[in-house]
Specification:
This protein has helices at residues 22-32, 47-56, 69-78, 91-99, 122-133, 154-165, 177-186, 201-210, 225-228, and strands spanning 3-7, 13-14, 17-18, 36-40, 66-68, 84-88, 103-104, 111-114, 137-140, 170-171, 194-198, 214-218, 237-239. By secondary structure, it is α/β, with parallel strands linked by helices. A six-stranded parallel sheet has the order 5-4-1-11-12-13. Strands 7-6-8-9-10 form a five-stranded parallel sheet, sandwiched between helices. Strands 2-3 form a two-stranded antiparallel sheet. One of its GO terms (molecular function) is hydrolase activity. Keywords: Hydrolase. It holds the Pfam family Hydrolase_6.
Amino acid sequence: MKNIICDIDGVLLHDNKLIPGSDKFIHRIVEQGNPLVILTNYPVQTGKDLQNRLGSAGINVPENCFYTSAMATADFLKNQQGTKAFVIGEGALTHELYNAGFTITDINPDFVIVGETRSYNWEMIHKAAQFIAQGARFIATNPDTHGPNYSPACGALCAPIERITGKSPFYVGKPSSWIIRSALNHIKGHSENTVIIGDNMRTDILAGFQAGLETILVTSGVSQLADIDKEPFRPNHVFKCAGDIDIV
């Protein structure tokens, strides 16, 4: 029985509206007993938040099925030296870092960690750049530049800090294979028996390809059939939407 890693936006939901058939697909996977990770680069919501979001659209899955870039960032940092972090982000990210034993501080931090936040400001940029220039390691939850309606995302918030310091962050989220390995560890799964389902060739499918997973592209979101030929790698399977998937 295959492990399933499934993206949210563009695969299961558009904004908060159900993509027709995706509820039946997910409910079938849960009933079959396939180990399931619903994976998102967005670090602002907790597993409970995401459970409520999908539940409101008619998709009912246990809270422990959700895995975010905030969780993966905390997992990554557990294996690094240092326990103090300056964080630009929302409560879900600081929650995961607290749970991993980190102190959130603006006094000599070991790390500068950036995630999505609407409260981004000049002082945050200034402090982050100072700390990184003084040797703090630069970590970002994901490289996405924007979300729906061109709302600024993590990669955009990192850009001025990168320009000031000349240093790029380590991006934990897709297309990094780190978040895939972290998600697999979450369910004690292995890459050779795992399928990733996503709507974006440059994040979901590239991450799966780099991590050695079987890949399924659905064209209900970002990438369309014409986009496949723009990349040097290929998805293993292509379907119009999650409801059409019949191979797992």
